[in-house]
Amino acid sequence: MRQAGRYMPAYRKLRERHSILDLCHTPELAATVTLQPVERLGVDAAIVFADILLPFEPLRLGLSFAAGEGPTIARPIRDAADVERLPSFSIDAELGYVFEAVRLARRALPDDVPLIGFAGAPFTLASYAIEGGASRSFTKTKRFMYQAPDTWHLLMGKFAELVGTYLAGQARAGAQALQLFDSWIGCLSPDDYRTFVQPHTTRALRLAAAAGAAIPLIHFGTGTATFLEDFAAAGGDVISVDWRIPLDAAWTRIGDKRAIQGNLDPAALLAPAAERDRQVRDILKRAGGRPGHIFNLGHGILPETDVAAVRAVVDLVHGA
Ligand code: CP3
Known about the structure:
Shape: globular
Oligomer: single chain
Order of helices and strands: HHHEEEHHEHHHEHEHEHEHEH
Mean pLDDT: 96
Radius of gyration: 19 Å
Bound molecules: coproporphyrinogen III
Low-confidence stretches: none
Number of strands: 9
Structural class: alpha/beta
Distance between the termini: 22 Å
């Protein structure tokens, strides 16, 4: 996740001349960025360069990325009329540039480096659409959810369908695994997760699996330790966990039928080498050499990260 990004000089160089949306909209550039971390870091897989919020453009929510401030949505969703007004659109026509980036990246990658496609999960998309950007407390989202549950479910249903179909399209274009990002799901109580989110995530993952053939689905969330069983029950062949729970404890709760991804704190990459390496080894020890562990960060890489530190972790994991 966020393998590329501002911590990587080759990416920053391209960003001097192109906005993030330009990079996403231009499949040749997106494919180039997709390959950068593979070349520089030696990671085992690539994730296509795109963003979870791109579907907001054809939904006409007014997506932009302000420098240093993250995403902004000019026309957030605030009531039932806004939900009903959401246009239906052809994913192939409006987001086909992502499929093209998948095709180009797949062609350019070495055969033994799989390509991951991705999308935002219904809840995380809804939170951006309702808040109008990033949020700390998600109060607008929760107020919407509690005040207008029917409209909430209508919106989540629309996002589930959109995301499932979009993921399936990436699979058809050549993605060999699909990751669903529910980045902010940890703000909910276990009860609210089950009531307001879980059925929609399940639907999105089923749609992706049905049309996307038998490729692995990675279900990503952060802050899920309080409802990990329910989060895993929503679906996914691989469950991604963050550093707030030890990897072995999480795996026990997920069950040994499922693979696990995680879970280094991205902040460990800012620590002195000895402390960073200690944390990496601890995760590997907790995985115990069992098949089905994908070593990863628990969340996106921080912009102030030194590329050499990331490379050192990749090498340490590969040498273990
Ligand atoms: O290797 C890669 O970078 C893959 C492409 C990728 C991006 N975004 C490009 C991007 C992926 C997988 C994402 C996922 C994404 N986008 C998520 C889910 C993962 C997570 O981190 O939780 C979320 C929540 C978003 C929404 C988003 N996009 C935010 C909050 C921001 C701004 C904050 C930040 O960290 O910069 C973005 C911008 C963004 N998307 C950047 C990149 C590389 C960095 C901004 C830039 O280049 O100016």
